[in-house]
């Protein structure tokens, strides 16, 4: 993909997301259900590579590692993130010059020292230039498991998810500008969209940051009211961090069927009025409404001027503490489902009310 604008760090997509959990046996069964396969094991550390398509999830169980302490503090979570860059050394020193804080990740003898800076919530943000099959960090530091020695077999299809579409950070109120500027200063991200979503009782503000490669997208969320879902996340997660990770497929209907077969709990479908109104909202969209409704898939985008730009999406229930996943298919739409945002927001709010974490009686005066 050609760069959208000046790309001083040579960014080229997400390389991996690293996960940790304070107790064993939490991440592995979940990743299996999500369609991932464990294909390689680190040569010296208690670290595994799980893959689906071109998506790499790292499970780090190494005692007294950064990941270990992160999980002690935050519970099961995404404790690290990696960007692909053209030249990791150059990108690292440029980041330090621009004020990034280095993070030292100890490496064994003959192992790669992965350059990392301190990112969201103190989690390491790695800069990786070895990502080509055969020359990747995994080819050097990992051993492929039996059955995956052949590079042609190293990208299991799983449920059909091919890449990380975006991942969202939840930040404390007043901190969205800090993180937007951080990604802009170091990596030349741009704000592509800004939403200020007011539910009936609470709200959230969101800035969708996109990298110059057009592949790394990081929306930033901040609480817009009081006692809302972002505040609840920050309390439960014990700090700022990755709220959800969106995985992209070319066939969401089939991928959702596979997720359901595997027993991944998904958000319940919106009511039938949502589906009845789709034709009005997106005239001539041509998507099979009954099929979407049967699975609870949401549709967004635009069909203005006869030009179809559509996005299909569905969210999981919280699966790692408050952290959840999104499953998405893009048909020429580059948004994040903002048309669905309000509907989703209100459905989460209704869920908060049902669970009793949001008291609404005083907040809902009857109109005179
Ligand atoms: Fe999302």
Automatic annotation (TrEMBL):
The entry's free-text remark on the cofactor is: Binds 1 Fe cation per subunit.
PROSITE patterns hit by this protein? VOC (PS51819)
| Gene3D superfamilies listed in its UniProt record | 2,3-Dihydroxybiphenyl 1,2-Dioxygenase, domain 1
For the biological process aspect of GO, one term held by this record is: L-tyrosine catabolic process
Q: Where does Fe cation bind?
A: 166, 244, 326
Family annotation (InterPro entries): 4OHPhenylPyrv_dOase, 4OHPhenylPyrv_dOase_C, 4OHPhenylPyrv_dOase_N, Glyas_Bleomycin-R_OHBP_Dase, Glyas_Fos-R_dOase_dom, VOC_core
Which EC number(s) are documented for this chain?
1.13.11.27
Q: Which Pfam families would you find in this protein's record?
A: Glyoxalase (PF00903), Glyoxalase_5 (PF14696)
> Which cofactors go with this protein?
Fe cation
> Which keywords does the record carry?
Dioxygenase, Iron, Metal-binding, Oxidoreductase, Pyruvate, Repeat
Q: Which residues form the signal peptide?
A: none
List, in alphabetical order, the Gene Ontology terms for molecular function in this entry. Answer: 4-hydroxyphenylpyruvate dioxygenase activity; metal ion binding
Q: Boundaries of each VOC domain copy?
A: 13-130, 163-317
Family classification? Belongs to the 4HPPD family.
Mind telling me which PANTHER family this protein's record contains? 4-HYDROXYPHENYLPYRUVATE DIOXYGENASE (PTHR11959)
- Which NCBIfam families does the entry link to? 4HPPD (TIGR01263)
Protein name from the UniProt record = 4-hydroxyphenylpyruvate dioxygenase
């Amino acid at each position: 993909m050609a760069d959208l604008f000046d790309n001083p760090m040579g960014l080229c997509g997400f390389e991996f997301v690293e996960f940790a959990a304070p107790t064993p046996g939490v991440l592995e069964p979940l990743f299996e259900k999500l369609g991932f396969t464990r294909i390689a094991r680190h040569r010296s550390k208690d670290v595994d590579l799980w893959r689906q398509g071109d998506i790499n999830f790292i499970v780090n169980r190494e005692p007294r590692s950064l990941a270990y302490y992160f999980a002690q503090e935050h519970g099961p979570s995404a404790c690290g993130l990696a960007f692909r860059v053209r030249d990791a050394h150059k990108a690292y020193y440029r980041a330090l010059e621009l004020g990034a804080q280095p993070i030292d990740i100890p490496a064994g003898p003959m192992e790669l020292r992965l350059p990392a800076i301190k990112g969201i919530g103190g989690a390491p943000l790695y800069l990786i230039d070895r990502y080509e099959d055969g020359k990747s960090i995994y080819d050097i530091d990992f051993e492929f498991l039996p059955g995956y020695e052949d590079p042609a077999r190293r990208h299991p299809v799983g449920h059909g998810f091919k890449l990380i579409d975006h991942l969202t950070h939840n930040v404390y109120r007043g901190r969205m500008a800090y993180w937007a500027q951080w990604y802009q200063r170091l990596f030349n991200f741009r704000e592509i969209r800004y939403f200020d979503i007011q539910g009936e009782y609470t709200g959230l503000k969101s800035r969708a940051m996109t990298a110059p490669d057009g592949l790394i997208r990081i929306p930033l969320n901040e609480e817009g009211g009081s006692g809302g879902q972002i505040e609840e996340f920050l309390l439960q997660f014990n700090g700022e961090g990755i709220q959800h990770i969106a995985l992209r497929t070319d066939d969401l209907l089939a991928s959702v069927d596979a997720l359901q077969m595997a027993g991944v709990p998904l958000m319940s479908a919106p009511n039938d009025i949502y589906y009845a109104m789709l034709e009005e909202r997106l005239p001539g969209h041509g998507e099979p409404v009954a099929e979407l409704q049967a699975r609870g898939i949401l549709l967004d985008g635009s069909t203005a001027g006869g030009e179809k730009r559509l996005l299909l999406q569905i969210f999981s229930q919280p699966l790692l503490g408050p952290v959840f996943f999104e499953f998405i298919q893009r048909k020429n739409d580059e948004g994040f489902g903002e048309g669905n945002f309000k509907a989703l927001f209100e459905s989460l709010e209704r869920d908060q009310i049902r669970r009793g974490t949001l008291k609404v009686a005083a907040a809902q005066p009857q109109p005179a």
